[in-house]
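For consistency, the fold was encoded as tokens, which produced the following:
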Amino acid sequence: MSKTVSYQKGRIHDVVTRPLTKFLDERGWLSELFRSDELDPALMPTMAYVSMTQPGVARGPHEHVDQTDYFCFIGPANFKVYLWDARKDSPTYGVKQIFFAGVDAPTMLIVPPGVVHAYKNVSHENGIVFNGPNRLYAGPGKREKVDEIRHEDEADSPFQLE
């Protein structure tokens, strides 16, 4: 990553987004978050977690060296999602992609290694996000270094949320 890169808006190579379909009935709704028959085996989740983000709060920006994240933004809040392609060998190196996801636009998002990412809850209520990364947090038995490069506290970071 170079601090001198000027990121331009666009779509990032290897980032996948897909609308999540809600199947409604008298009980409520159901949404399939992932299916093994629709996912590259290298991206198959090895663990899963759910996080709650309070209104106005952001998570990130950070990136991973080896891990691919598999996020699902389902609500009850909306999020502004930020992505920066910091992969020097990528055809979209230097591209910044921004979109909204959540209750108004349920979305699955695959973020490959080297793509810096962040999301901010832009609603007035708590928001829930599912993640099924393809690597275990801190490795087997939580005995390895965490695969995360944090940019949140860098004053001169090119990864600024608007």
